[in-house]
Design brief:
alpha+beta; 7-stranded mixed β-sheet; 24 helices; globular; disordered N terminus; binds adenosine-5'-diphosphate; binds magnesium ion
């Protein structure tokens, strides 16, 4: 049985029928909407044209009939508040119809706008509680779908005074910004057939799957998503026998059902495999328009958890659920595509196309360099701090990888030297054809945070639980800004080719410090990056403090992505979230140590003492070395743990939540986290010497290796 079962068993031959079967997509619209309404709908989707109410009424009614035929009884405006996850409030289609009967109704007004009572969503001071009203507005560019007998309508979420309270609106605005600026540049290159561009994204999603019964026994996983204690198991990932290994039957069954559920919702789930750490896996969809991809990634994460539960599993999306093995990230593959289907990062076949490719490439290079801080901020969270800079993940330094060939070409352009030594050819932009770079030669460096992979860029710093919206808001806006500067210059230039060449040269010269083709995991690189003046914000509070830097406020303002107030609200919400996460972790740790671990080891040492007495009653000379030494060690470790817990308790009690949010977050980072680490070390040592019968929690070994 499937979660959102249509009662049809999926076999491999009916995937095309099943695909998108729960989505009010293009095909359904074409079949069901009257011709003129369908045309108006298409216009709204393609050009963002507002829909008049009478058309919206027809669309709503058609949507409702289709939804009811497919088992829906309710509808919801589905939105993405700044909590990082999605929110929904369900209303039924029911309307009273005289004589105690009911009819099913859904109006255009209900489709276009909703009014959830939104006072409990974080707003970072944007909306006073007395003005709790927020409203949701339909995003017709992302298809509505049915899940759990409910029609889901993707929406944006704003306050009544118009401030943005969600992640979708700024994402749409950033797509608009890059569209505006890219179109200026494309026009100058004579692309008269192109009327719009959209950014595209394919996010690769990593996750852990563990047994649900074991999961339920770990308070740390239940409350915080990660293990706060846990001794290293005898075996971790050192044999590298899990990566791309054969998939276990329970996991296969989970993946199969997950694929089917995602396909029904129109998500192009494509690739799945085991990852490096035991119990770690990955799912990658085929890329699509950024805002749809962002919606789909949210659905994917949600369904991963739900489907896992059905299979007696728990899906962990935390960035670092286990300390001794790799954490989980998300790779944001990003590109720009024209409405005529051209990928702007596909190096062209003619000199003209090459020049255009190089100019867009330069915009990305400049954007990544000028806005390194924003990229880092877009992935900043308490969870991701445990991963970035650790061995398996890119360091907290943002840099770009272009591949040997492309870097060589850029060098040659900058210095005016010959690129092709044999032919002694100097590259002249707009005259010469660049050699083709193959994916193979560009994709080798897996350690770079921002890698060019042949015809797209792969940003690898995202944490597994991150919404991809933030990262893409930053990339889109930063690239829009660089394109704006280019367009300003080019529009005024007398000689287009020369001006273009000059921009490319200048950009390479001033931004080449961001390009690094070596091993990003090497300690040497961190030092080299510092010499180059690149920023290295190791922790979330350090990174976030730059969110409100003048240059960043100016950027968002200029491209109408965020107002100053909106940036400030995000800054505050993220800092507050960081503090909350660490406080919850600290409380959970205290509860585990004081109520489970210390009592358990105390009982165990009583057993050992009993054992000494009994042995001695049999033989006065019994040495009881094991028992004595263990009791001593337990006493020492538990005393340390107990005292550290008392200190942590004190710190938590003295937290002043009225204090400046940045100071509070810094306090958590500098004082709470190190103490928690110290307590963990005592606990892990205790685990290693305590009888497995007495230890109150499933161990790392149990958690990582029990799913078959
Ligand atoms: P790898 O594991 O080597 O990084 P994958 O094939 O797992 O590669 O993932 C590559 C991702 O990049 C897929 O989601 C794919 O759809 C996406 N992708 C490919 N082309 C583009 C593009 N033009 N724009 C955005 N994403 C793309
Ligand atoms: Mg990848």
């Amino acid at each position: 049985m499937n979660l959102y079962s249509s009662g049809v068993e999926i076999t491999m031959n009916n995937v095309p029928d099943i695909f998108g079967s729960m989505v009010f997509n293009e095909k359904v619209m074409q079949q069901r909407l009257p011709r003129d309404v369908y045309k108006a709908m298409k216009k709204t989707i393609l050009d963002g044209k507002r829909m008049d109410l009478s058309t919206a009424n027809v669309v709503a009614n058609t949507m409702k009939d289709w939804a009811i035929e497919n088992g829906a009884t309710h509808f919801t405006h589905w939105f993405q508040p700044m909590t990082g996850i999605t929110a929904e409030k369900h209303d039924s289609f029911i309307s009273p119809a005289g004589g105690g009967s009911a009819i099913m109704e859904f109006s255009g007004k209900e489709l276009v706008q909703g009014e959830p009572d939104a006072s409990s969503f974080p707003s970072g001071g944007l909306r006073a509680t007395f003005e709790a009203r927020g409203y949701t507005a339909w995003d017709p560019t992302s298809y509505a779908f049915i899940k759990d007998s409910t029609l889901y309508i993707p929406t944006a979420f704003c306050s009544y005074s118009g401030e943005v309270l969600d992640k979708k609106t700024p994402l749409l605005r950033s797509m608009e910004a890059i569209n505006t600026q890219a179109m200026r540049v494309l026009k100058l290159f004579g692309n008269s057939d192109v009327t719009s561009v959209k950014t595209t994204v394919g996010p690769e999603q990593e996750y852990f799957l563990i047994d649900r019964e074991l999961y339920n026994k770990r308070k740390d996983l239940l409350f915080t998503g990660r293990t706060l204690i846990g001794a290293k198991p005898p075996k971790g990932q050192e044999l590298e026998d899990h990566y791309f290994g054969s998939i276990k039957p329970r996991v296969t069954a989970f993946m199969k059902e997950l694929d089917e559920e995602l396909w029904k919702l129109g998500v192009y789930a494509k690739t799945k495999h085991n990852e490096v750490a035991p119990a770690q896996h990955e799912l990658a969809p085929i890329y699509t328009t950024t805002n749809i991809s962002s919606d789909h990634n949210q659905l994917t994460m949600e369904l991963m958890k739900k489907v896992a539960q059905k299979h007696g599993l728990a899906c962990l999306l935390h960035e670092k659920p286990f300390d001794c093995v790799n954490g989980s990230g998300k790779h944001n593959n990003w590109s720009i595509s024209t409405n005529t289907g051209v990928n702007l990062f596909e190096p062209g076949d003619t000199p003209h196309e090459n020049a255009q490719f190089l100019l867009f490439l330069c915009a990305v290079i400049a954007a990544v360099d000028d806005y390194q801080d924003l990229l880092r901020i877009s992935v900043a969270s308490a969870g991701n701090d445990r991963r970035l800079g650790a061995n398996e993940a890119p360091p907290a330094v943002v840099s770009m990888f272009l591949g040997e060939e492309l870097s060589g070409i850029l060098n040659a352009i900058e210095e005016g030297t010959a690129f092709d030594i044999r032919k002694k050819e100097h590259i002249k932009i707009g005259v010469h054809v660049l050699p083709r770079f193959f994916k193979d030669t560009t994709d080798r460096n897996r350690t770079s945070p921002f890698a060019f992979t042949g015809n797209k860029f792969e940003f690898r710093m995202l944490g597994s639980s991150d919404s991809i919206a933030c990262t893409n808001i930053m990339i889109n806006t930063a690239v829009a800004e660089e394109l704006r500067k280019f367009a300003d210059t080019l529009e005024k230039a007398d000689n287009f080719n020369e001006a273009c060449e000059q921009i490319i040269k200048d950009t390479i010269k001033s931004h080449k410090r961001i390009i690094f083709d070596g091993n990003g995991y090497d300690d040497e690189w961190v030092k080299e990056a510092e010499r180059r003046g690149l920023s290295n914000y190791r922790t979330t509070p350090e990174a976030l403090s730059h969110y409100i830097d003048k240059k960043n406020l100016e950027l968002f303002n200029r491209h109408k992505v965020y107002t100053d107030a909106e940036v400030h609200s995000r800054y505050e919400i993220l800092l507050e979230n960081y503090t909350k996460v660490i406080c919850i972790e600290a409380q959970t740790l205290l509860e585990m140590v004081k109520r489970d671990i210390l009592p358990a080891v105390s009982l165990y040492s009583r057993d050992l003492c009993d054992s000494i007495l009994q042995k001695r009653s049999l033989s006065k000379d019994a040495e009881c070395i094991f028992e004595k030494e263990t009791v001593k060690a337990i006493d020492m470790l538990s005393t340390t743990a107990y005292k550290d817990c008392a200190k942590l308790d004190e710190l938590l009690k003295n937290m002043n939540y009225n204090e400046n949010k940045l100071n509070l977050a810094m306090h958590c980072k500098d004082n709470l986290l190190p103490l928690m680490e110290k307590i963990r070390i005592s606990c892990d040592s205790l685990e290693e010497i305590t009888s497995s019968k007495c230890w109150p929690y499933p161990t790392y070994g149990d958690l990582l290796f029990s799913v078959n």
